[in-house]
């Protein structure tokens, strides 16, 4: 036996993923509308006491509708039981849940149904084939320890109770499936009579009831003369029988019954025997009883007991061997009569061959046979003349008239057929299936399967005449999946087993009871379905069925009359006149529009996949003796808080319609009063005032703030000055001198600046920390600003000695303007020989001296001759290099001049010696002077940041102007640093704070409302508007400094206002929004969340901002405190690695919106909303603090990869070892134990028919891809985008991870606990490896756009449909006309696109590398 956590059977319900029968097409469905209400009603009843959920309406007048939906109701009955099991698991009762079913096949189905809905449950299937009869008390105890639920046949539990291996006080809940079978001396009846009722209600030692709660399930309706006696069942099961309240409005719909047709056939003569039958008859007749192994063994024993047995056997002529061969002969005659001669010969031949084949020593298929019996029977079989029959029946004489008519009907069917052929005997089913498969015309149209049922007795020995090995589980699964479309089955399919709806049901053997007929008829649920009943012309059953059919027709007529009465009743005018009018708008709510309003609200509030968000109405019919009154209650989606999920009508009504209108009105009024509905009586989400603002791409804003007027004024008003020592370091740290910069305002520390003297030469400007001095001290310092500027610019504009807004002073020289070009050229002077002084012409344009030229060179040899060159004297000329005209040294030159096509002329510039003058100021001061515009721009940006801090951001008290400058610098400004890292941080902080604010101030709101609220506040449109309205736009730097129009800032000119004012400008709204987020990032960096909240209050004033830590306290207080601890939750807590203070948060974090089993709780959407923000915050904080700092683009890619839904799904699918152990039975019978393993996804609580199959398929894909994904995570240098995508995991996997993060944070208030959870599940170890080893993170499709380098990219998608109708996709990626990648066999078009893009990137990278390799080889 496998451990309890292992899956036995891949069970997939017959219903589609939406929970509706996928084949019903136009047929109305009671279940599709009322299923959740039905399950809730049954769950509530079962939690109050022992109940038998019975599908009996009691009146007989609406039963025909129930019959039609019987199969669907059976499924829903089991789903109700599963909800009850979930509720039991979440209780503090640690005892075992035991689910009983009458057949092995039904046990297997129900076990898989439970496992599908509750994957985390430790559940075992225990049946006779597990050799339970060999188990002892120790075996049972080992298996039950750590097991939460057992599914078994009635007999298995009865035997365990009989031997005292199991006691009822060890069970918390006992479920009887097909409870109507608990009659008489049945195993179920014995369990109740001999053990449950024995000794009365005992008390457990801990005070709880020693006996388990009882839940009975039965979907078998009673009919007038065939009542099952529910009163007796109630007494036996100590339970009250309850039935769901079927909605009148559903019963009023027309239900078309399947077309019933009786087919009469001729009886076949049984006297005629085939040659094989005659040979078998001959061998049976000639068997000597004295040669029988059983007789010879009795003779050899020679005891009194053996003598008595010998006498009896000889008298009766009965031994096992003789009975087996006799039964083979008898059944061959039945087959001959029922199916024809070919079938009889096939049966004998097949039986003989299978038995002889199983004589092999290793075969276990003949369990129960002693070796002597095997050999004895084999010897007789070998003597039988049984040749292999023809591949198919030849001629009508080889098949019976019944089979002939069956073939005619099957071949006459049009369109797609899904059918079941019911037969009585197991052997008949196997042989008929083989016969049908042998006929080519049938094989062309049908895929035939066979179901014969499985024995539940562990003592049953293998019979010779049953040659087949049952493959019922696989066949049933194939039928559900459409691989088999014609099933030959015994009565095993009549009840309980979930199979697809059929359009053809054939009763090849007549049903034995009316119940059997009704249940077979219920399988024909498709539109225009047919029910064929085969019978013999001389059979009395025809008269019986005629009478029964008349009874059915009468019932149908009664139902039609009832429909008419209900229609009248449902249109009664009972004086209902509820209404409400909104005072301010006049919007009106009344009883007629309340239901449609409520349905619309539910669709808006919970539009989740796998979730039917419609309101659930439960109606109750109360008979007061004179009339029947109706009460109604309505249940709303689980995404709402408990107090807004359940409402009742204000009174009782005669009409169900009025009762439900009343309930809907009460619900909608409560939602309005709770603020969930706006003043137009619509959901908030569609209120125009709640919409996210629209925005233009570009908007006009104020001109950039000009700081120099304020600085100029400070020179005359302020008493303090701040000085910086500036040092210039050239290449190889060469020191070029010190200068002092004086400012009248405080700027704080300045970063070292890298300056680009030319394409290859970098200077470093280092600023000392600022030092405050008095105004008097500053006035004593020389002002060399004009001279320093004049060395570089005096030839371009007039220079005066007046003061500037910034004062520069040289430390080692006294500099005056008159020393510029004040000396005649003297070739013998030290100034000329050292080349440390600039040479100037008449215009004072500076140049560097290279050497002398003996005479005037021809003009053709000079690259840049001066004006009037021809008139210049012929004398000694100076060979010069002109001084740079550049003003901007903050940015590197775009082109290396040395790589450009050079001139062939010998001299760059020349000048007659008589024209030349020489500076008396060292060239190093000219080098510094040319940098002053760049330094001034740097100071200007700092001044802008300073003013922003002291004005708009004054409440924040920010003194780090460098960080502020980064925050206001767009990438387009090409400052040394820009805002993108801070914006990345601020975006996360904004999302985190806004999410908490939204949820804390609107505790009743669903995730949809919260998301809209958050989106409205964090949208770029809102943030850009804030930037404009607050005046922030004045401080944003977007234009790069070029120095082209730069002029000195003289104090007099600035104060006089003669400077050209900045012009208004247009800015991108995204840039405006980004700067707001960057400032939030600055605030957080300097003061954490409190300062970030202050910053948000400046820009977004729609709310009174709360600190998220205070919001968390609100969430914690709002969470339900009354939640019982349970072993189930303890296992989940161990898996998570965190123990919750409030267990309700853990339940909420694992509850999908489809879950109906907990009306006191809510689904995980709110916690997922919070967890999404917390997860984002934790990851961003980790990335922003990484050393060395990461570029914005890489951080964005890393965050995207970590929160990728497929990656989150993968970590939720991974199993982890737990401390609990579970036992299993090894082949030798030994009991072995192993540690349990489980995964987070198994703990998702849901009530959707679609989620279970989706989880099963995803789990299969996970198993197939797991090794490949883990290898990529642990070893690959690329993030496995394309592999993760192939998981095709639904969003609910990642939602659960985020909800758990949110729950842990709300419960603990600790980010460390959240990080520990994410570390345990592998997120942060992988992130650490990515950072350490620089794993490539870019998405293949995004990277493809880069490596394609502008070439056209075309994804050619091919859709392929299989025979079963399943779709797969192929993709050919063509870049620039060349196929570079292929994706094949994907489940979606996007999957193959990603796979093709992955191949394409590799191809194009390899292609780009080839020329480089060739060049290297050539070199």
Could you give the count of β-strands? Answer: 37
Radius of gyration: 45 Å
Q: Which structural category do the helix and sheet elements fall into?
A: alpha/beta
Strand content: 5-15%
Q: Strand arrangement, largest sheet?
A: 3-4-2-5-6-1-7
Name the poorly predicted regions.
6-34, 56-71, 201-208, 221-228, 362-366, 456-460, 1412-1419
**Tally of separate helices:** 48
Shape: elongated
Average pLDDT metric: 85
| Gap from first CA to last CA | 70 Å
Main β-sheet description? 7 strands, parallel
Helix content: 40-55%
Short description:
The protein has 48 helices and 37 strands.
Q: Could you explain the architecture of this structure?
A:
With 1419 residues, the chain is α/β, with parallel strands linked by helices. The protein has 48 helices and 37 strands. The strands form nine sheets. The protein has a seven-stranded parallel sheet with strand order 3-4-2-5-6-1-7, sandwiched between helices. A six-stranded parallel sheet has the order 8-13-12-9-11-10, with helices on both faces. Strands 20, 21, 22, 23, 24 and 25 form a six-stranded antiparallel sheet that branches. β12, α20 and β13 form a beta-alpha-beta unit. The radius of gyration is 45 Å and the shape is elongated. 45% of the residues are buried. The C terminus is likely disordered.
């Amino acid at each position: 036996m496998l451990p309890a956590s292992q899956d036995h059977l891949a069970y997939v319900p017959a219903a589609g993923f939406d929970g509706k029968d996928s084949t019903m097409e136009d047929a109305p469905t009671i279940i599709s509308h009322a299923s959740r209400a039905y399950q809730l009603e049954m769950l509530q009843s079962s939690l109050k006491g022992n109940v038998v959920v019975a599908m009996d309406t009691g009146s007989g007048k609406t039963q025909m509708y129930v019959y039609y939906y019987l199969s669907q109701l059976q499924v829903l009955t089991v789903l109700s039981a599963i909800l009850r099991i979930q509720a039991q698991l979440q209780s503090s009762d640690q005892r075992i849940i035991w689910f009983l079913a009458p057949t092995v096949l039904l046990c297997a189905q129900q076990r898989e149904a439970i496992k599908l809905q509750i994957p985390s449950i430790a559940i075992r299937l225990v049946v006779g084939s597990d050799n339970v009869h060999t188990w002892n008390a120790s075996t049972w105890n080992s298996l039950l320890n750590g097991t939460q639920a057992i599914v078994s046949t009635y007999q298995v539990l009865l035997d365990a109770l009989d031997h005292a291996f199991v006691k009822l006080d060890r069970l918390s809940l006992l479920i009887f499936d097909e409870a109507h079978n608990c009659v008489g001396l049945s195993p179920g009846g014995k369990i109740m009579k001999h053990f449950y009722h024995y000794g009365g209600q005992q008390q457990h030692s801990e005070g709880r009831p020693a006996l388990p709660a009882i839940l009975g399930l039965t979907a078998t309706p009673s009919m007038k003369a065939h009542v099952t006696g529910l009163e007796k069942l109630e007494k036996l099961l100590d339970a009250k029988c309850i039935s769901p309240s079927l909605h009148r409005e559903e019963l009023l719909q027309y239900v078309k019954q399947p077309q019933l047709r009786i087919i009469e056939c001729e009886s076949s003569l049984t006297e005629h025997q085939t040659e094989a039958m005659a040979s078998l008859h001959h061998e049976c007749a000639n068997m000597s009883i004295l040669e029988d192994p059983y007789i010879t063994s009795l003779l050899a024993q020679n005891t009194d007991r053996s003598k008595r047995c010998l006498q009896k056997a000889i008298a009766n002529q009965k031994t096992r061997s003789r009975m087996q061969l006799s039964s083979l002969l008898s059944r061959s005659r039945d087959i001959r009569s029922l199916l024809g001669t070919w079938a009889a010969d096939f049966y004998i031949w097949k039986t003989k061959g299978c038995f002889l084949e199983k004589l092999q020593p290793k075969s276990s298929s003949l369990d129960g046979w002693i070796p002597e019996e095997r050999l004895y029977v084999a010897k007789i079989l070998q003597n039988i003349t049984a040749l292999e029959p023809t591949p198919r029946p030849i001629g009508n004489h080889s098949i019976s008239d019944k089979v002939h008519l069956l073939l005619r009907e099957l071949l006459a069917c049009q369109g797609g057929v899904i059918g079941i052929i019911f037969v009585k005997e197991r052997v008949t089913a196997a042989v008929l299936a083989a016969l049908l498969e042998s006929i080519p015309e049938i094989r062309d149209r049908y895929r035939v399967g066979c179901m014969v049922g499985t024995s539940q007795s562990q003592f049953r020995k293998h019979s010779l005449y049953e040659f087949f090995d049952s493959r019922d589980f696989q066949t049933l699964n194939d039928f559900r999946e459409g691989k088999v479309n014609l099933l030959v089955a015994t009565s095993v399919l009549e009840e309980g087993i979930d199979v697809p709806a059929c359009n053809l049901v054939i009763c090849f053997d007549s049903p034995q009871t009316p119940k059997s007929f009704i249940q077979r008829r219920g399988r024909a649920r498709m539109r225009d379905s047919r029910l064929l009943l085969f019978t013999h012309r001389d059979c009395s059953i025809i008269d019986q069925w005629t009478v029964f059919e008349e009874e059915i027709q009468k019932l149908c007529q009664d139902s039609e009359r009832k429909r008419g009465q209900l229609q009248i009743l449902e249109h009664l005018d009972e004086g209902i006149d509820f209404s409400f009018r909104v005072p301010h708008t006049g919007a009106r709510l009344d009883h007629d529009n309340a239901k449609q309003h409520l349905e619309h609200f539910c669709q808006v509030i919970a539009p989740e996949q796998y979730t039917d968000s419609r309101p659930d109405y439960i109606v109750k019919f109360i008979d007061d003796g004179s009339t029947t009154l109706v009460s109604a209650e309505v249940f709303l989606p689980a995404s709402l808080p408990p107090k807004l999920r359940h409402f009742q009508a204000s009174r009782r009504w005669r009409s169900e319609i009025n009762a439900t209108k009343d309930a809907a009105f009460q619900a909608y009024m409560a939602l309005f009063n709770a603020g969930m509905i706006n003043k137009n009586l619509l959901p908030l989400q569609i209120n125009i005032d709640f919409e996210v603002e629209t925005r233009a791409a570009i908007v006009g804003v104020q001109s950039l703030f000009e700081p120099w007027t304020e600085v100029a004024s400070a020179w005359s008003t302020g008493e303090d000055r701040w000085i910086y020592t500036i040092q210039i370091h050239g290449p190889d740290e060469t020191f070029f001198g010190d200068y002092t910069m004086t400012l009248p305002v405080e700027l704080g520390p300045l970063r070292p600046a890298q300056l680009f003297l030319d394409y290859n030469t970098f200077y470093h400007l280092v600023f000392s920390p600022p030092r405050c001095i008095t105004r008097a001290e500053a006035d004593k310092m020389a002002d060399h600003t004009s001279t320093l500027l004049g060395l570089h610019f005096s030839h371009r504009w007039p220079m005066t000695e007046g003061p500037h807004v910034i004062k520069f002073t040289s430390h080692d020289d006294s500099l005056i303007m008159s020393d510029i070009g004040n000396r005649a050229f003297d070739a013998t002077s030290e100034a000329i020989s050292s080349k440390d002084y600039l040479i100037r012409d008449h215009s004072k344009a500076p140049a560097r001296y290279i050497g002398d030229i003996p005479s005037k060179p021809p003009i053709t040899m000079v690259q840049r001759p001066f004006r009037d060159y021809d008139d210049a004297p012929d004398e000694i000329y100076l060979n010069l290099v002109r001084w740079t005209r550049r003003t901007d040294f903050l940015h590197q030159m775009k082109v290396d001049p040395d790589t450009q096509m050079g001139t062939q002329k010998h001299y760059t510039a020349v000048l007659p010696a008589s024209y030349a003058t020489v500076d008396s100021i060292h060239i190093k001061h000219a080098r510094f002077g040319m940098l002053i515009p760049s330094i001034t721009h740097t100071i200007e940006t700092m001044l802008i940041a300073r003013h922003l801090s002291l004005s708009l951001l004054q409440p924040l008290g920010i003194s780090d102007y460098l960080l502020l400058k980064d925050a206001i610098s767009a990438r387009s400004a090409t400052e040394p640093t820009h805002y993108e890292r801070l914006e990345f941080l601020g975006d996360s902080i904004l999302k985190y704070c806004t999410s908490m604010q939204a949820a804390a101030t609107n505790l009743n709101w669903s995730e949809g409302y919260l998301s809209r609220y958050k989106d409205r506040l964090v949208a770029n449109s809102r943030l850009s508007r804030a930037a404009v309205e607050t005046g922030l736009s004045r401080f944003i730097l977007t234009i790069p400094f070029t120095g082209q129009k730069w002029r000195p800032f003289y104090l007099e000119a600035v104060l006089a206002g003669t400077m050209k004012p900045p012009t208004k400008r247009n800015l991108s709204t995204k840039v405006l929004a980004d700067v707001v987020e960057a400032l939030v990032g600055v605030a957080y960096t300097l003061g954490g969340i409190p300062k970030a909240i202050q910053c948000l209050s400046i820009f977004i004033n729609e709310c009174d901002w709360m600190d998220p830590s205070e919001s968390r306290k609100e969430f914690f207080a709002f969470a339900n405190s009354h939640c019982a601890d349970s072993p189930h939750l303890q296992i989940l807590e161990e898996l998570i690695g965190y123990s919750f203070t409030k267990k309700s948060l853990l339940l909420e974090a694992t509850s999908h919106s489809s879950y109906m089993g907990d009306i006191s709780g809510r689904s995980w959407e709110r916690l997922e909303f919070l967890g999404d923000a917390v997860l984002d915050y934790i990851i961003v904080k980790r990335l922003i603090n990484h050393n060395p700092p990461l570029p914005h683009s890489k951080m964005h890619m890393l965050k995207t990869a970590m929160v990728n839904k497929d990656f989150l799904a993968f970590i939720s699918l991974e199993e982890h070892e737990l401390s609990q152990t579970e036992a299993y039975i090894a082949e030798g019978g030994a009991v072995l134990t192993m540690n349990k393993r489980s995964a987070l996804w198994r703990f998702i609580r849901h009530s959707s028919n679609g989620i279970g199959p989706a989880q099963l398929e995803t789990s299969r894909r996970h198993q197939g891809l797991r090794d490949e994904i883990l290898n990529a995570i642990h070893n690959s240098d690329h993030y496995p985008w394309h592999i993760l995508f192939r998981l095709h995991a639904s969003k609910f996997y990642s939602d659960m991870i985020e909800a758990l993060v949110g729950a842990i944070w709300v419960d603990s208030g600790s980010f460390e606990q959240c990080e520990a959870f994410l570390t345990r599940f592998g997120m942060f170890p992988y992130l650490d490896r990515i950072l350490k080893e620089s794993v490539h993170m870019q998405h293949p499709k995004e990277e493809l756009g880069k490596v394609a380098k502008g070439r056209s990219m075309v994804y050619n998608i091919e859709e392929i449909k299989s025979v079963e109708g399943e779709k797969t996709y192929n993709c050919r990626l063509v870049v620039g006309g060349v196929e570079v990648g292929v994706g094949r066999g994907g489940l979606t078009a996007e999957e193959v696109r990603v796979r093709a893009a992955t191949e394409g990137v590799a191809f194009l990278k390899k292609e780009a590398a080839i020329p480089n390799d060739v060049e290297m080889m050539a070199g």
